[in-house]
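Revision sheet: C-alpha cells.
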Amino acid sequence: MKALLISSPCEEKFTDLLREAGFAEILRTENAKDAFATGNDCALILLNASHAGPSTLALLGELARRTRAAILLLVPEAEAGELVPEAAKSGVFVLGKPLSRAQFLTSAYNALALHCRLSQSREETQRLKDELYEAKTISRAKIALVKYLNMSESQAHRYIEKQAMDRRVHKLDVALSIIANYDV
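Predicted:
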C-alpha cells in the first residue's frame, strides 16, 4: 500500500513509522496541493503541519472528496481540539503533536482500516451499478422484441437466454445487439 507524506521538511521519523504500519511505498511532498496529483493512488495521506487554519482544512476536505485515501492531519496539541469538529465533517482525522509511537501506529492502522472498508463499499457499489445496468439493458431489449417482433415478455426473455447460450456470450451482449438492431 502507498502513503503520501506531506511535511516540510519531510521527516524521516514519519517515514519509518509509516513503513512500520505496513506502507510499502511512501511518497513525499512539501506542498499539500501536490497531493491532488498523487493522492488518489494512496491509502493514506499524512499532513504534518506546524499550524492548520481554515484553508488547510478546506484543502484536506477537498482531498477527502476527490481521493480514496484516509487523511491524517498532525498539528500541535493546542490546535487539535478546536480543529477536530470541523475536520471530522470533512472526513479528516486530527492528531495532536507530540504523540507517542503507539498513538501514531494506532491512528495509522485505524485510517488504513477505514480505507479498506471504503474500498470494499466502492467495489460493492460498482458491482450493484453494473448489475442494475445489465438488468435495465436486458429489459430494454425485451421491450424491443415485444414491440417489433410481437413476442410476449416470457418469449423475449427465453429468446435472449437462448441466443446467449447458443452464441456462448453473456445476456448483456445479446441485449445490446438487439437494442442496436432495433435502435430503441
